[in-house]
Target: M20 aminoacylase family protein
Amino acid sequence: MPTIDRIDAFADELTAIRRDLHMHPEIGFEEVRTSNIVAEKLDAWGIEVFRGLGGTGVVGVLKGKGDGKRRIGLRADMDALPMEEHTNLAWRSTIPGRFHGCGHDGHTTMLLGTARYLAETRNFDGTVHFIFQPAEEGLGGARAMLRDGLFQKFPCDELYGLHNAPDLAHGEIAILPGPAMAGADFFDIVISGYGAHGAMPERSKDPVVIAMTLGQALQTIVSRNVDPLHSAVLSITQFHSGSAYNVIPGEARLAGTVRCFSDDIRKLVRERMRALAAGIAAAFDVEISVDIRDIFSVLVNQQEQSDVVAEVARGVVGDANVKLREQPKMGSEDFADMLQAIPGAYFWVGHDGDVPVHNPGYVLDDKILPIGASMFARIVETRLPVAANV
Model:
């Protein structure tokens, strides 16, 4: 049971769709053109279409043969990143500052390929919900769809998602039961000091020095508070202050992210960040505000659905290409919030290319489009089998 012949037959059309989406990338909650294309294609294939969940989200509903009551959700993200593309591809981004640098154009296309195949064959007994999600890249698209009643309106018994993986070989499928991707917080810290002439620092409460002191202190949280047998990352990724060589500014800002696999550790890190900021504010006689926001939950794959993915993958790509990951990824994914509501699994599809995602030179390998589409389709056919007398 390798990639599905019918999907292979329209692989060139999938490539054309993917490259068109790539040329016209849209960032989170702005996926108007993308969602229009998704909705039009689903409708053309006879799939019932619902729009507007989470803003620009689209859900397609398809019933199979028989009277099966079980329901499976398949999810793909649609948004691009706010970054430049540095490739020379003929289908490179035509919009400055917008780039499908994470391959969500590929994920959308894979799910469209699955939808087309299942609409043509309906070789399943039950209902499939095709979930096209906006704003995965840190803007809360999954939570927006959930707030709009995604699983109340479109109930699912189990749920599956995927991501392309240039760190795997072409055609490899990887799955990790249990905690598979980290939860993430984003933070903004503002140090409100007192500015002065650069030649007269004694008249200031220098926020740059205070920010550097706090930044160093924050780096002790993981090494001196978190059990070394557990994982956590605190990264300061932004430092903003000042506008002139001879002016000590009045304000400095730090921003960054925290990643870990335990809500208890997340709580610990947040508490230590606030305590260190308060202590340093007192020591330097300034005000420091700390805003820490829960952006991604820990992504947890259920064992049953992980086993389903592995079983299906053995048929699609062969046993040798099925990889059971031993180490979770410190990266984050907002599909985690959907998996907190519905049991399911999230897996990775390897492809040629050694440039990582979120790099301006990243390139998605179109040869994996039939693989991802076949994986989703075979999961549905495996979990919603048609009875012999239907």
The mean pLDDT is 97. The CA atoms of residues 59 and 225 lie 44 Å apart. The longest helix spans residues 263-284. The longest strand covers residues 183-192.
